[in-house]
């Protein structure tokens, strides 16, 4: 009998230790879930900004399709005509705090090759948005991600 009592005295605090270890494991699991949630939120925001860039580029291409062929040069970022300024301002308001740099719009002066006919024009649009995981380059000194699209505007 004295052996059983001595054994119980040695076991004091064991349940408390098990409970503390269980709480530690639970806390690490919760911390992992919070980390996954933060990574998911970052990816969701980046995906939303990429979708907005795709929509804006397609919208600009559609606007170029409906405009007069003689006005296409004003869409270029090198000339910075009113259609380009409107596009850049709209993009800046949509992107908000994620706006990194002015978009680049090139008409007939890049390495896509010649347009299919004399009444069509090659267009390249690059849209930037700020991202901590992005890169910097000559076009934009801020860490950014980039969406680029090319197309042909006019009659073939």
Structural topology:
Elements: H1 2-10, H2 14-66, H3 82-95, E1 104-107, E2 120-135, E3 144-154
Antiparallel strand pairs: 1-2, 2-3
Helix pairs in contact: 2-3
List keywords for this structure.
20% strand; 3-stranded antiparallel sheet; alpha+beta; 49% helix; single chain; 156 residues; rod-shaped
Short description:
The chain has helices spanning 2-10, 14-66, 82-95; strands spanning 104-107, 120-135, 144-154. The protein is an alpha+beta fold. A hairpin with an 8-residue loop joins β2 and β3.
Account of the 3D structure:
By secondary structure, the chain is α+β, with helices and mostly antiparallel strands. The chain has one domain (2-154). Helices cover 49% and strands 20% of the residues. It has three helices and three strands; from the N terminus they run H-H-H-E-E-E. The protein has helices at 2-10, 14-66, 82-95; strands at residues 104-107, 120-135, 144-154. It has a three-stranded antiparallel sheet with strand order 1-2-3. The longest helix is centred in the N-terminal third of the chain and has 53 residues, at 14-66. It is rod-shaped, with a radius of gyration of 29 Å. The N and C termini lie far apart (102 Å). The relative contact order is 0.12. The mean pLDDT is 85.
């Amino acid at each position: 009998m004295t052996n059983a009592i001595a054994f119980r005295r040695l076991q004091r605090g064991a349940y408390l230790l098990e409970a503390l270890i269980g709480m530690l494991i639970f806390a690490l699991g919760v911390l992992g879930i919070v980390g996954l949630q933060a990574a998911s939120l970052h990816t969701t925001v980046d995906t939303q900004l990429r979708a907005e860039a795709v929509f804006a580029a397609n919208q600009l291409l559609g606007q170029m399709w409906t405009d007069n062929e003689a006005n296409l040069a004003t869409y270029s970022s090198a000339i910075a005509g009113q259609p380009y300024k409107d596009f850049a301002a709209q993009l800046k308001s949509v992107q908000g705090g994620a706006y990194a740099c002015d978009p680049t719009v090139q008409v007939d002066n890049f390495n896509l090759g010649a347009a299919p006919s004399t009444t069509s024009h090659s267009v390249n649009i690059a849209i930037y948005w700020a991202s901590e995981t992005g890169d910097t380059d000559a076009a934009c000194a801020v860490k950014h991600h980039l969406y680029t699209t090319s197309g042909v505007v006019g009659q073939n």
